[in-house]
Amino acid sequence: MADKQNKLWGGRFSESTDQFVQEFTASVNFDQRMYAQDIRGSIAHATMLSEVGVLTDAEREAIINGLTEIREEIERGEFQWSVALEDVHMNIEARLTDRIGITGKKLHTGRSRNDQVATDIRLWLLDHIDLIDRELHRLMQGMLGLAEREAATIMPGFTHLQTAQPVTFGHHLLAWFEMLRRDRERLADCRKRTNRMPLGSAALAGTTYPINRERTCELLGFDEVCQNSLDAVSDRDFAIEFCAMAALCMTHLSRMSEELVLWTSAQFGFINLPDRFCTGSSIMPQKKNPDVPELVRGKTGRVNGHLICLLTLMKSQPLAYNKDNQEDKEPLFDAVDTLLGSLRAFADMVPAIEPNRDVMREAARRGFATATDLADYLVRKGIAFRDAHEVVGKAVGYGVSSKKDLSDMSLSELRQFSDQIDDDVFEVLTLEGSVSARNHVGGTAPDQVRAAVARARQRLG
Q: In sequence order, what are the residues at sequence separation of 6 or more whose Cβ sits closer than 8 angstroms to the Cβ of residue 383?
């Protein structure tokens, strides 16, 4: 019976919890990381209870001082977590009662673990959304710096992983930046819906105590209170929404990783990654493996899985709170940790990328990258685009058989396909001419890339 009596909810039960069930149902091994948010919520709750007359000023001060000391005890690594007390909330409340006596038991007046955990997890996620936003910002700043430096560095642009048209490395990096810009917008949007306070909803139906939820909301820095008690304790949309954002952001990082892995290979040789972001082989001494992008690419799958996990968790739950919701934390925590770690790695790595400019330029010369420019040239000479397309296709066929790029052909060779081709054709067949000709917002011209960087910096702040 001793174990039953140690439970904060044990009054209704006539026998102790089975030891295996106790360990199976406990969450303290993973939810203890919310201790700071739990204590913040409890301090705000106690402050509000004293203001409405449920607690005396002396009781409030004893609770706040006790919770502050417990937080320091946890941060020193001296706190003894107990699986028998199930979760972070009951561990802290039991320790508070040990320290200050019966006043500690009054802290739970007017609330339930249901609204308490819903509040804690929102506070925890808000704190980590802000950390993620800072890492996104740092990565995006580093990306813009590299894009500006490489605004005129020519490389092949690809479709179907085949050489398509010349672009610049700076322009390519700005494509990465746009992916992250959308991710940051989604993160900010997710934060708005996370920043709503469930506390005061109690178990599911509110409380008969004269609480002031707006005051607690103000103390905790939430934007607003949740408007329905049933929904407030059982809603996990914000966690799902975050995992959806995280899965998409990781997918973007994975796409970037795939390109980095390709570009560092001997077959491409477009870039070098500093040694600190790579590892070697235990058997092949020549190897330099791009482990950071490979690992980020691999970690994307686990974050995608966490999104499916939370969607599946919630799909059949009746209102209001169910024990199923204990399973929300581990996937959410891991999604946060994985995304945050991946962004930190990229924010350190991307500004340190070293492009092999000559290799990139030579690659852009192969594959008839200026074929579309030749077709556009013929259209400007009055030839219909479909006819110009056919002319250039024949020229490319000739280039394949003669092993000559379009820019390597003589004027007489080119004129055998159209007598509209003149000496000025070589201005559009050069790589520099090709990228500079696309001189519009979002285009590849180096000046447009630099202007895009400037605009992006202004928006980024």
A: 391, 418, 420
65-91: average pLDDT: 97
Is 290 buried (19+), middle (13-18) or exposed (0-12) by CB count in 10 A? buried
Residues in the chain: 461
Evaluate whether 164 touches 363 at the Cβ level (below 8 Å): no
Given 14, 160, 282, 440, which residue is catalytic? Answer: 160
**160 in active site:** yes
3-state SS of 95-136 is: HHHHHHHHHHHHHHCCCCHHHHHHHHHHHHHHHHHHHHHHHH
Per cent of the chain over pLDDT 90 is 87
Indicate which residue of 50, 234, 281, 401 is catalytic: 281
What would the pLDDT profile of 323-382 be if each residue is shown by its tens digit? 999 999 999 999 999 999 999 999 999 999 999 999 999 999 888 999 999 999 999 999
How distant is the alpha carbon of residue 96 from its chain centre?
A: 37
Clarify whether 281 is annotated catalytic: yes
- Does the pTM surpass 0.90? The reply is yes
- 29-57 per-residue burial string, b: 16 or more CB within 10 A, e: under 16: eebbebbebbbbbbbbbbbbbbbeebbee
Is it the case that residue 5 has pLDDT exceeding 50? Answer: no
The terminus-to-terminus CA distance of the chain in angstroms comes to: 61
**Res. 431: pLDDT tops 70:** yes
Instruction: Check residue 2 and give its pLDDT.
Output: 40
CB of 300 within 8 A of CB of 251? yes
- Under 8 Å CB-to-CB from 79, ≥6 apart: which residues? 70, 73, 91, 95
Q: How far apart are CA 200 and CA 225, in angstroms?
A: 9
Identify the three-state secondary structure at position 282. coil
Contact 83, 23 (CB under 8 A): yes
Torsion 248-253-259-265 (CA) sign: negative
Alpha helices in 158-235 (DSSP H): 169-194, 213-220, 229-234
